[in-house]
């Protein structure tokens, strides 16, 4: 039996990784796994427990005692997957501004990253798996069949985030600033920084529809592993 095809999609927040990965998974019959939900679930748990994010021992205890399950979406409310934290559906709660504000700090923790990496790798299944994150091609799946680095300008990503939140146009500059600050944190952290794999293919999404980006990536994958 041939091994599952692995497609790694990395890039900054708001570039369209999750949307593109979900569409590709539907088209190809692959399993889609957004690795970022693990860090968001841990972040949500730290907020609930009031954990000091500078305390590595406390963060290690959170990860050691946590149960996160990821499965196909069971509710047609726009979600891409179900995320269960300690048996509770937190698919919406992990997308709140409160989680947004701390998830990069949680993801920068060596204890958290070490505790979750095996769980990420265990998600590879079926005929193929698409993983989206920030260090998939460099750390989690360095032997992926195809590595994509999906990008978009910070202004475009801010517009997408504003639309997602249903906010006012006056908030756009603040959202863009927050995105730029997060990019800097993600790219400069000592552990598993957001970085482009040397053998990744850059795909820029400004001015492109989701369908156009999906078609580009699908053609690239077909060129590597066949249709």
Quick gist of this model?
This protein has 227 residues and is α/β, with parallel strands linked by helices. The protein has helices at 17-28, 36-49, 56-64, 97-107, 110-121, 136-140, 154-165, 172-188, 210-225, and strands spanning 5-10, 31-34, 68-72, 81-85, 88-89, 128-133, 146-151, 201-204.
Radius of gyration: 17 Å
Q: In sequence order, what are the helices and strands, one letter per element?
A: EHEHHEEEHHEHEHHEH
Number of helices: 9
CATH superfamily label of the largest domain: P-loop containing nucleotide triphosphate hydrolases
Distance between the termini: 17 Å
Shape: globular
The biggest beta sheet reads: 5 strands, parallel
**Adjacency order of strands in the biggest sheet:** 2-6-1-7-8
How much helicity do the residues have? 40-55%
Q: At CATH's second level, what is the architecture of the largest domain?
A: 3-Layer(aba) Sandwich
Number of strands: 8
Fill in the CATH topology of the largest domain: Rossmann fold
CATH class of the largest domain: Alpha Beta
Tell me the β content.
15-25%
Uncertain ranges: none
Mean pLDDT across every amino acid position = 89
Write down the domain tally: 2
Q: Pairing-aware structural class of the strands and helices?
A: alpha/beta
Descriptive keywords:
single chain, about 230 residues, alpha/beta, Rossmann fold, 2 domains, five-stranded parallel β-sheet, three-stranded antiparallel β-sheet, 9 helices, 8 strands
């Amino acid at each position: 039996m041939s091994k599952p095809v692995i497609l790694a999609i990395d890039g900054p927040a708001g570039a369209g990784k999750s949307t593109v990965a979900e569409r590709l998974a539907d088209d190809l019959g692959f399993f889609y796994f957004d690795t970022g939900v693990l860090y968001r679930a841990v972040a949500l748990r730290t907020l609930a427990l009031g954990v000091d994010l500078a305390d590595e021992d406390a963060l290690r205890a959170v990860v050691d005692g946590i149960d996160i399950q990821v499965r196909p979406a069971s509710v047609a409310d726009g979600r891409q997957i179900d995320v269960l934290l300690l048996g509770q559906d937190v698919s919406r709660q992990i997308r709140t501004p409160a989680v947004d504000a701390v998830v990069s700090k949680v993801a920068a923790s060596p204890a958290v990253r070490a505790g979750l990496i095996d769980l990420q790798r265990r998600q590879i299944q079926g005929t193929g798996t698409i993983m989206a994150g920030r260090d998939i091609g460099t750390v989690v799946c360095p032997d992926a069949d195809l590595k994509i680095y999906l990008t978009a300008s910070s202004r475009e990503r801010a517009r997408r985030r504003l639309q997602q939140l249903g906010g006012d146009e006056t908030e756009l500059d603040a959202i863009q600033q927050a995105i730029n600050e997060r990019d800097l944190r993600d790219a400069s952290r000592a552990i598993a920084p957001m970085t482009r794999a040397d053998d990744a293919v850059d795909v820029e999404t400004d001015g492109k529809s989701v369908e156009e980006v999906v078609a580009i990536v699908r053609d690239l994958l077909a060129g590597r592993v066949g249709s």
